[in-house]
Specification:
two-stranded antiparallel ribbon, about 450 residues, Growth Hormone, Chain: A, about 75% helix, about 0% strand
Length: about 450
């Protein structure tokens, strides 16, 4: 019985929940939560801000850079914050972040140009750690793969939905480009607060969960550095590849209306295309969830990511020769890019921790690759504006696809070879926490043992 149920925290021994019901509840709540985060962050990408400039810079690029600066700052702070965040602080963080993001969107509509772009810095700053906080509710369980898959596909689905909502508000509700993000955010804010509260009601990992994966604990600075040194060659390759993945995905998401002619497709095309890609990705990740060999799953993810980025490199190299319809081209971009990107945002590091019996948490890895990736996006936007402004967005994106696709394939193949060899070596345990935190950690472990003893007896 203990292997197939989760207990509710407020009634540990009185109520039990089947795994399939918990997956629907927890996965659906996490998916909706991060979709609402996208509704607070991404609707402005549907606007073109045509003809506007700030200090000689294209207004939309300036807005994207300012928001991204806030996002990068949040990621840098999050490397420490997410690694050390305790469960009782998660809901307060979600509500506070959502409130600040909506206030910043209102300020974006109220303030005159160009001063309003500063508001989006705080929008990015408030939302930069949300993925790691939401994911922390899901990690360390036997069902984490499918839960993370459900949550992860929200990135593919929500991006298209956010753009479609933005275009609908602009074209049919006739809301201005500056107030449209605040309108959508006003609907998303209370819903996100509610789903944040719902996630605090999730049951804690059971004894069977911990036996299947590993105990998830906070990591201080000394332990983070020791973990990085232990897997440095692999992590350097993966961090580098994820930098490139994030750059390409961000350019696609933020500037797709400049890359293709949106007048040739309907306002809801983005949502429809991303929904289909989402279902395909969810099916793939669900199949992998049934595989209990962690190393095998890691290898499959790297192979699939290599195939996806290789396809994008081919599309970029022969952009004009294939002549794909716009909708098919969009679908291939979403599917191939998100196959690689979402693998590392969801399943990969969860399985990596379990495979190598690492004492830590997924949040540390995800927030680190996010920081590195968005720093790369910021650098590329500055390069495009100041050194390649004469290149149209379509040509720029296709050239970028070619180079990034090839580089990622090399990094993924190298990572695959390294992991197979590393798995056969004797693992090196991470150092214990410094003396001042040992007592506190022992108290937490004792509490967990009491809880796990209760759940195991059910």
């Amino acid at each position: 019985m203990k292997d197939s149920v989760n207990t509710l925290p407020e009634a540990e021994g009185k109520h039990a929940m089947p795994d399939w019901l918990f997956v629907l509840w927890a996965g659906g709540t996490a998916l909706l939560s991060y979709s609402l985060v996208y509704a607070l962050r991404k609707p402005f990408t549907a606007a073109e801000f045509e003809g506007l400039q700030v200090c000689g810079m294209d207004y939309k690029i300036a807005v994207s850079i300012i928001q991204l600066l806030g996002y990068v700052c949040a990621k840098l702070l999050g490397i420490k914050f997410i690694s050390e965040l305790r469960p009782e602080g998660r809901l307060k963080f979600i509500i506070g972040s959502a409130a600040l993001s909506e206030i910043s969107l209102v300020a974006f509509g109220l303030l005159p140009i160009p001063y309003n772009i500063v508001a989006l810095f705080f929008n990015g700053l408030s939302l930069g750690c949300m993925w790691g906080v939401i994911f922390s509710f899901l990690e360390g369980r036997r069902t984490t793969d499918i839960l993370a898959s459900i949550m992860g596909v929200s990135m593919a689905l929500s991006s298209g939905v956010a753009k479609s909502l933005g275009l609908y508000a602009l074209n049919h509700l006739h809301v201005s480009e500056f107030w449209m993000p605040a309108l959508i955010g006003a609907v998303a804010f209370p819903l996100l607060c509610f789903t944040g509260w719902m996630m605090t009601r999730f049951p804690r990992p059971t004894a069977a969960d911990i036996a299947s994966r590993s105990v998830r604990v906070t990591l201080n600075g000394h332990q983070r550095w020791a973990l990085f040194r232990r897997f440095m060659p692999l992590l350097l390759m993966l961090f580098g590849a994820n930098l490139l993945l994030t750059v390409q995905r961000d350019i696609k998401e933020d500037f797709i209306v400049c890359i293709i002619d949106v007048d040739t497709i309907s306002s809801w095309a983005f949502a429809q295309i991303d929904s289909i890609a989402t279902l395909v990705l969810l099916a793939v990740f669900a199949l992998l969830a049934s595989t209990y060999n962690h190393l095998r799953v890691l290898c499959i993810l790297l192979v699939l990511s290599t195939c996806g980025m290789g396809t994008l490199a081919f599309l970029g190299a022969d952009a004009g020769g294939i002549g794909l319809p716009t909708t098919i081209w969009l679908f291939m971009q979403s599917l191939c890019l998100d196959m690689a990107y979402l693998s590392f945002q969801t399943i990969f590091f969860e399985r990596f921790i379990a495979c190598f019996k690492i004492r830590g948490n997924v949040g540390f890895f995800i927030i680190t690759i996010d920081f590195v990736g968005y720093l790369g996006t910021l650098a590329l936007l500055l390069f495009k504006e100041f050194y390649a402004s004469h290149i149209d967005w379509a040509s720029f994106y296709n050239q970028m696809s070619l180079y990034i696709g090839v580089a990622c394939c090399v990094a993924f193949i190298g990572s695959l070879i390294y992991m197979i060899h590393a798995r056969n070596r004797k693992p090196e345990p991470l150092p214990e926490k410094p003396e001042e935190t040992v007592t506190e950690h022992a108290e937490e472990t004792a509490k967990d043992n009491v809880y796990l003893t209760t759940t195991t007896a059910i």
